[in-house]
Amino acid sequence: MLRYTVKRLLQLSVALLGLSLLLFAWFKALPGGPENQLLPENATDQQREALRAALGLDEPIWVQYADFLGRAVRLDFGSSLSSGRPVATELADRLPATIELSLAAMLIAVGLGIPLGYLAAKRRGTWLDFTAVSGSLLGTCIPIFFLAAMLKVVFAQELGWLPTTFRLSAGADYTDVTGLRVLDGLITGEFDIAWDAVKHLILPAIALSSIPLAVIVRITRASVLDVVGEDYVRTADAKGLKPSVIRGRHVMRNAMLPIATIIGLLLGSLFAGAVLTESVFSFGGIGSFVYQATTERDYPALMGFILVIAVFYVVINLLVDLSYGLLDPRVRVRS
Amino acid sequence: MRTSPTPVRRALAAAAGAALAVGLFTACGSDGDTGGDADTAEDFDFSCPERTDELTEDLIDTEANESQPFVFGTPGDPTSLDPILASDGETFRVNRQVFDTLLDADCTDTVPGLAESFEQNPEGTEWTFHLREGVTFHDGTALDGAAVCKNFDRWANFKGGFQSPNFTYYYSAVFGGFAENDPAMGIETESIFEGCTADGLDVTISISQYTSSFPGAFTLESLSIISPASIDAVADVTIPAADSPLPEYTQTVGTLAGTGPYMLEDWNHSEQEVTLTRFDDYWGEPAKVKTLIFKTISDETARRQALEAGDIHGYDLAAPADAQALLDAGFQVPIRGVFNLLYLAYTQSHAPLENHAVREALSYAIDRQRIVDSVLPAGGMVATQFIPPSLEGYSEDVPTYDYDTEKAKDMLAEAGAEDLTLTFCYPTDVTRPYMPAPKDIFDIIASDLEAAGVTVEARPITWVEYIPTTRSGECPLYLLGWTGDFADPYNFLGTWFAAPSTEWGFDNQEVFDSIAAANTEPDAEARVDLWKTANEAVMAELPGLPISSSPPSIAFAPNVYPPDVSPLTREDFSQVSFTTGS
Predict the structure, then answer these.
(1) Percentage of chain A surpassing pLDDT 90?
(2) Are B175 and B169 in contact (CB under 8 A)?
(3) Which of A57, A66, A70, B80 is most buried, by the most CB atoms less than 10 A from its CB?
(4) Which residues of chain A does B69 touch, with a Cβ-Cβ cutoff of 8 Å?
(5) Which domain holds residue A297?
(6) How many angstroms separate the CA of residue A182 from the nearest CA in chain B?
(7) Between chains, do A170 and B167 touch, taking CB under 8 Å as contact?
């Protein structure tokens, strides 16, 4: 297991190096440069050239890449050109919002998706199955930004049940521990803050959960249908085992392998969905920051953020792979 | 509403300019300068509509002002709490409440700030300011001439990355450079700042060469005055390179003290929230609302929804299309004066645009009023020249091009350009205060040109690519504009037409000379005439078609008394109050 983990981590380093080279080449190939965003439109060509020179953007691309790499291995991604703050600081400020939102969305998706998928499979052909399947189809079809906007208009604007924007009400006095506002409120006993954060989290989390929920329902249904037809399930049933034992030990445990894989992949894709959701709800996470950095050609911010997201993605998938051993003893034996 | 007929306004502007030259400030401003009624919209000068509402004592909701924060939604985060290191409007908006400048702007007029009055020598190379008495910084020290000089000396002696244009763009734009230019920062022009001397509350700033940036540049937020103790506290701070992070003191409150109506209380980066609290010893009228919060909501629709839901009490850059719906729902959308310019450029390196008759024909083909009426916010107006009407030197005698498709067709035929095909560039992913919907504006102009027989080939370009592409002269036709920093025609005309450039592709020495003459004329009265001449020379050349000047929209909740809105977006939030009864 340790050897496997080390091997995967080494693969990760090679993947990150390749990714950084690709990203760097791609960003530099994009037309336009950050000086056009950093300076007013009536800045002279001489002022623009001065800034390009000062930022080292007139150096050959391999010199710029070597400089970037030299700093990146020390976890120094430089500073954002638009905010003037270290990229690491921006990450520390922004990432918790996206993590909190993604976790909340995944909680909804997993908490609803697996039971719904299981029920749809168990009651195949009934109205429940039909509703779950068509509902999940709808979930994958509706664009996130549209759903987010609709939820906001109905529940925040028209009904006024929930806030329209932000992670907390403006001016809320809270204690920062982990950066996850709900958790921080619970840890510090500031339950009003935790409740305020939950209210701000509900709509964006629902919007962001729509696609993973739909996917998890479908995968769970298909996976459970596969498993319930297996001989060992029929045998367990014939042995007179209790339905709860058959469900937990024989059906769900075997059905969980593809579900765990898809959850890992979905967690990564949630970051992409977060760009749109955070923008609609002004949630202040990395999604909106990456979008802004892209339009402004803020190279250091983009490189830093994308590499960190890549690390997250790979690490999550590594954890998913490792969890196979827990779910299925056969994987453990083979490894 | 300010409804002064144009000629009266011109006369007042000229008189104010003359008065400024001898250091007397007129009582101009948003509540003065009424010039009588005008009959039609064309007679009005929209530079600064006068507000009709008044905040009486019984309207002020004192309890709300003391207990409730006023939350204003901004399109972006500020970047630096040190004003000299900022060049963007969102940072200016926050810092303006905390720091003061030597001079201020009311509407577009230069008015007293920390200086009650000033005078210049005839050459325009010495500017003496007489500071107010009794002004104290937030750290308790008193303002005097020495404190002002300490600021100017600090800026002039910046080293290393402090000199980079992404940090100190406005300082180097106004003063040319620094005492010792760092070769790594790319600035090659010499500084015109010669020194600052103080005598009690009098302070004299010397420059080696007059430019028309003065005295307007003394209103720039970047040149705000911070306390001497603040300067001492950051004296050892360095910025090694242009891509170094901004120093920590610019990102956290507690180091810099200003003299403004609000003090910095907190900057919460993760919540994108800046909190200010009232400064009770402010030299002017104290702020009405105790706590002011600027909160970033980058999405335009999200800002409107947050206002409608009551999550915020006001926001800036409302979409023009939202204005009427907000008004109908009881919200307030006060109209700012105009201080920007949108133009269509004719790049003369592309034949047959070097032909004056062709440029004239294209200008007749475009219905600019339709753009103003259908795309721009209320208060927008068709432009006749390359500066907004509120600036000195606006000329009534420039050639104008009223919409006339038939005339355009005839002129194109006469010029032998009936089968004209032109590439027309516009930006795709941006809205600018002078250009709220680039694609809509493009569509109107393109359809007008097509109606005159011109084949238009659209070339949409992303914003970061747009400036270098248009600068290089690649686009025969393109849309661009500018919002002025302060009252100075050179801020518009100079950056476009002071010398030959690929973006315009013409070489007309008369135009260049006329701008240089106005820019270097220290006498205010003489300068007004020279700018008029320059405007007339530019419009005779017709390098492009000025399309419009339009005010960016700002919106407020019904239960709020908004600040006086400013064409320079210099709103003073100390004027804001919650109100009773709505």
Answers:
(1) 23
(2) no
(3) B80
(4) 170-171
(5) 87-332
(6) 14
(7) no
**Which CATH number belongs to the domain containing residue A198 in this structure?**
1.10.3720.10
At B267, list the tokens: 């900057």
Asked whether residue A79 is domain-assigned, the answer is: no
Q: What is the mean pLDDT of residues B538-563?
A: 95
A55, A85, A165 ranked by CB distance to B242: nearest: A55
Structurally, chain A folds into a number of domains equal to 2
Distance of residue B183 Cα from the nearest chain A Cα, in angstroms: 9
Of B354, B341, B322, B427, residue with least CA distance to B388: B341
Q: Which of A74, A109, A137 is the last residue of a domain?
A: A74
* Residues on chain B touching A45 (C-beta within 8 angstroms): 471
Higher local confidence (pLDDT), B368 or A242: B368
**β-strand B560-561 against B544-549: which pairing, if any?**
unpaired
Greatest Cα pair distance, chain A, in angstroms, is 85
- Portion 514-573 of B in contact with A at CB < 8 A: none
A33: confidence class by pLDDT, cuts 50, 70, 90: confident
B295: which strand partners? Answer: B73, B273
Q: Which residues of A touch B482 (CB under 8 A)?
A: 40-42
- Number of A:B CB contacts under 8 A? 188
Least confident piece of the model among A250-254, A329-333, B185-189, B563-567: A329-333
Question: Which residues are CB-contacts of B91 (< 8 A; sequence separation ≥ 6)?
Answer: B78, B79, B80, B83, B221
How confident is the model at residue B47, as a pLDDT?
62
Range with the lowest mean pLDDT among A200-214, A297-311, B196-210, B397-411?
A297-311
DSSP annotation of B57 reads: G
Q: Do A170 and B495 touch (CB under 8 A)?
A: no
A170, B87: Cβ pair inside 8 Å?
no
Choosing among B172, B265, B270, which should be mutated to test the A contact, i.e. which has the most A CBs within 10 A?
B270
pLDDT in tens, A287-311: 778 877 877 778 888 888 888 878 8
Lowest-confidence range among B157-161, B190-194, B567-571? B567-571
Q: Are residues A104 and A25 in the same domain?
A: no
- Do residues A111 and A57 share a domain? no
Most B CBs within 10 Å, among A37, A166, A184, A279, to test the B interface: A166
B40 at the A interface (CB within 8 A)? no
- Residues of A with CB below 8 A from B186's CB? 49-54
Burial class (CB in 10 A: 0-12, 13-18, 19+), A231: exposed
Q: Which amino acid is at B548?
A: S
Q: Which amino acid is at A45?
A: D
Q: Read off the pTM.
A: 0.84
Please check whether residue A42 lies inside any domain of the structure. yes
| Tokens found for residue B259 | 């003299």
- Asked if B498 has any chain A CB less than 8 Å from its own CB, the reply is no
Do A226 and A308 fall into the same domain?
A: yes
Residue B374 tokens, joined: 């259908």
Q: Do A84 and B79 touch (CB under 8 A)?
A: yes
Same domain, A111 and A50: no
Give the pLDDT band of residue A331 (cuts 50, 70, 90): low
Q: How far is the C-alpha of B256 from the C-alpha of B254, rounded, in Å?
A: 6
| A1: confidence class by pLDDT, cuts 50, 70, 90 | low
Complex-level ipTM: 0.79
Is A282's CB within 8 Å of B275's CB? no
Closest-approach residue (CA) in chain A for B485: A40
Rounded to whole angstroms, the Cα distance separating B527 from A311 reads: 62
Model confidence over B131-148: pLDDT tens digits?
A: 999 999 999 999 999 999
The order of strands in the sheet holding B70-74 is B262-268, B273-278, B291-296, B70-74, B314-318, B553-556
B482 interfaces chain A, CB cutoff of 8 Å: yes
C-beta atoms surrounding B191 within 10 Å: 19
